[in-house]
Specification:
The protein is mainly beta. The chain is built from no helices and 7 strands.
Length: 113
């Protein structure tokens, strides 16, 4: 793996439960780990109709170096922030379990307005 190709910063966020001053519990994304990735490559550029609105489905693939912090990475407890945009993890490829790199397939998170 060429280190010089790792030129984009990504932040992995973990889903955690926080308690406010009144005692209410709510889910929040908190920063967990940050590292560099290969320039993200587009895998899916499509649009679909949802409730009469055209919605963009943008997908990316990130390749990062393997590290112990990302060993337990999954699609239910983590998501990725890339260029200030959140992406949901759809698949984690452990690259034949060689502990050299991880390939993370993501799709852009939809935000309700």
């Amino acid at each position: 793996m060429k280190i010089s190709l790792l030129n984009e910063r990504v932040i992995f966020q973990k889903n955690s439960v926080t308690v406010d001053s009144v005692g209410n519990h709510k889910n929040e994304w908190t920063d967990y780990f940050s590292c560099y990735t290969y320039t993200a490559t587009g895998v899916k550029q499509a649009e679909q109709q949802a409730a009469g609105i055209t919605v963009s489905d943008a997908g990316l693939v990130f390749t990062v170096r393997y590290c112990s912090e990302l060993a337990g990475l999954d699609n239910t407890h983590y998501h990725v922030v890339f260029r200030d945009e959140p992406y949901n993890i759809t698949a984690v490829d452990r690259m034949n379990y060689q502990r050299k790199s991880l390939k993370i397939t993501c799709e852009k998170e939809r935000r309700d307005s």
